[in-house]
Amino acid sequence: MDASNLSRAIIAFRDHMIQAAPEGVLDHVDMFIGHPAQVAELINAANNELNLVLFIYHIEHAGYPVHAKSDETSFVKMHCLLTAMTKLSQGSTGEMDLKLLGHVMETLHRNPLVSVRDDQGAIITQLQVVPTQTSMEDLARIFSTQFETSYRVSIAYELSMVPVFTAATQSGPLVEKIDLGMSPDMMDRNRLPEDPASKFETLCLPREGYRS
């Protein structure tokens, strides 16, 4: 299955955190995209101690004008929960969770813009990473769907605006020329520049760089 803009957005978000972080801070962190319960099984079977789960738990339409056409770009907001799941042979996992989330929060605070690219490397859009408030009730409901996975401290962000698809833009034909007319008399305002009775001063601009 080919990538969609939604999948490109979360992958770009993951890569952005790694690349935007200070050198060496998140280099040894494994970042998983998926449900905490599913990722927990992978983490238990792996040897890496520093793990971060990126869980898209809600997607909402970011306004869809009634006059919009089906071939126009529409946008959504993606709500992402970041959960640290560290696994240490020694020491406190709770403290390490806070260290990891602290570095992530600092990185996103300093670098809140994420560039999303297509398969050819061209930038599709630029997302803004917005911190969101998530109540304990909401977090409890989210983790209640994760089977036996216990709650771990988490932070929530909104990725906006994500284009569901990118409409192709078409440029109009080049304009041959642009005539600008000026007249000191109001009576001449509706006359054409070529009218002998007008008092227009005309300026013809070249066609290069102008489109209809």
Characterize the structure shown.
- The structure is a single chain.
- By secondary structure, the protein is α+β, with helices and mostly antiparallel strands.
- The chain contains four helices and eight strands, in the order αβαββαββαβββ.
- It has helices spanning 5-20, 36-45, 93-110, 136-144; strands at 30-33, 51-61, 75-84, 113-117, 123-132, 154-163, 178-182, 201-205.
- A six-stranded mixed sheet has the order 1-2-3-6-5-4, sandwiched between helices.
- α2 (36-45) links the parallel β1 and β2 (51-61).
- The model has no long low-confidence stretch (mean pLDDT 79).
**Share of residues in strands:** 25-35%
Helix content: 25-40%
Tell me, rounded to a whole number, the average pLDDT.
79
> What gross morphology would you assign?
elongated
Radius of gyration: 27 Å
**Strand line-up in the sheet with most strands:** 1-2-3-6-5-4
Quaternary structure: single chain
Give the class from helix and strand content and strand pairing.
Answer: alpha+beta
Largest sheet: 6 strands, mixed
Number of strands: 8
The total count of helices amounts to 4
| Distance N to C terminus | 39 Å
Give the H and E element order: HEHEEHEEHEEE
List low-confidence stretches: none
